[in-house]
Amino acid sequence: MAIHKKAVSVAIGAAALASAAVLAPTQAMAQGYPTRPVTMIVPFAAGGPTDVVARSLAEAMRKSLGQTVVVENVGGAGGTIGTARVAKAPNDGYTVLLMHIGFSTAPALYRKLSYDQAHDFQPVGLTVDVPMTLIARENFPAANIKEFLTYVKANAGKLSMANAGIGSASHLCGLMFMSTIGSEFQTIPYKGTAPAMNDLLGKQVDFMCDQTTNTTGQIKAGKVKAYAVTSKTRVPSLPDLPTLDESGLKDFSVGIWHGLWAPKGTSPEIVAKLQASLQAGLDDPAFKQRMTELGAIVLNDKATPAALDTLVKSETAKWGAVIKKAGVYAD
After folding, report:
1. Residues of the chain by 3-state class (helix, strand, coil), percent to 5
2. pTM
3. pLDDT value of position 47
4. Which of 309, 292, 300, 311 is nearest to 276 (CA)?
5. 23 occurs within a structural domain
6. Does the residue 11 lie in any domain?
7. DSSP for 175-240?
8. What CATH number is associated with residue 86?
9. At 131, which helix (H) or strand (E)?
């Protein structure tokens, strides 16, 4: 019996040593992290609203990480191609994903995804919430939001509404708008926000709903007509625009939140460093000033894995119901 106990003890000791040998390089890597640039994947085209947030955040995070944060645009399929890239990336902390609300809507919009939204990612934290604006071509006949709502309801079948593609923020806002007012329009999907905005500026389409990070400059330059914002309260950078809620569409609220993820299996130590850098970036005065100018709300009190995980679960359920009701799917 004594020999048996000794054998068991030796076996346990050997297993512990083996486990320590496996963990030691991982812990050492985490302690030294980062030793090279970190790539932030943005699953949309350069110059779009999410890209604007990412580039400002990357610079702010660089200061605390001590390494460059390189923004790489991997667009296509409503953000799912770039998202899949991160799901399959090494979980060493050198590839992260900056994605918006589309992270929660993709499971309902796409019949087949090459990643598992619920299991392939490690949340790091929320970053910003961006209100949407309801804008139209510069020569649209309505002078204010009251006239706009009256006009679009009376001419629903004749008007065109642009969006940046299925699953984009502008597409989701448009779905919510059509559902709320009980009308349908000709929806024109584009391969990104830039071409959609170009056609709106060229008066090729009638109106669209898009993030303040993409529309504020055009609104202030008078190149488009702006009617309302989708947030619960007015946006400080666009104080003259009423909310849709105060304009008669009660409880209409669409905010395009953005979050930061790492691949599943990223060590807790590296996630903690990323989260600390994210927090420092959101608190950076230059970043906060830039986001304020663009109408974005910095979520520095929600820059945690738990806050992002909780929001993703609730938003997946909420938008899943909206998308199912609208009967919109992508292959």
Report:
1. 50, 20, 30
2. 0.85
3. 87
4. 300
5. no
6. no
7. HHHHHHHT---EEEE-SSHHHHHHHHHTTSS-EEEEEHHHHHHHHHTTSEEEEEE-SSS--TTSTT
8. 3.40.190.150
9. strand 121-137
